[in-house]
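pasting for the record
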Amino acid sequence: MYKKYMLGAGAVCILAILGGWYWFQGGALPAAVSVDAEDGVVRGPGYTIEQVAIDESDAIPDIERPVQFSPTVPPEIRVTIEQRAEEARVILRADKTDAGAWLNLALWYHAANDYDGARAVWEFMTRVAPNDTTAFDNLGKLYHFALRDFSKAEQYFLESKKINPESTVPYVELFQLYTLSLKNEQKAFATMAEAEAHFPGDAGFAFTLGAYFRDTNRPAGAREAFLRALDTARAAGNIELVSQINVELAKL
């Protein structure tokens, strides 16, 4: 008889201790999760992780796998990462169902540029918590910026969008993938059009498009997108964004 695990809960720690170095490396912090005391469900911004039975044969990542540091990680940062990774392991040795500890362990692997370690945990999370798009988004970013496998990056972002249409993350990430790496403006613009239609009160998509047109020396397109963003920001009462958009318009 196989053993079953139940994916439970845990809080995701913030990597503030790494400071500017981690942000400079392009690290992305997962959002904090919360746990409902009544039903044990893990909830985060725009997603929910129900408890899921896990077959032991489902390739549970090796908790004792050491962190593999890239040469660019400073020695003092390595000490911190090792300590935090061990804290996650301590929790997982006692309870392999702690979702927060798994997410933290993957996060520390990624902070060390240990992409194989982070990928193994995130792939595991996509299997045992398939309605939590955090792992899908993180894998998409990993394949885009670190592993440079753009087709896999697109696959993960599209899957994330399908699982949780109310998350804005995959739309933004797909736009970056299409413009920065795949050079496919047709897909990029279609993604932004879909996002604007799906999130009519969010001015950020039109603003992002305006900035792209600005940076690619297409002032007419930039003005049109910025004006669209301006109307949305005004309707939402976002005074700060209205001011920012007016500055951009004045530069055109």
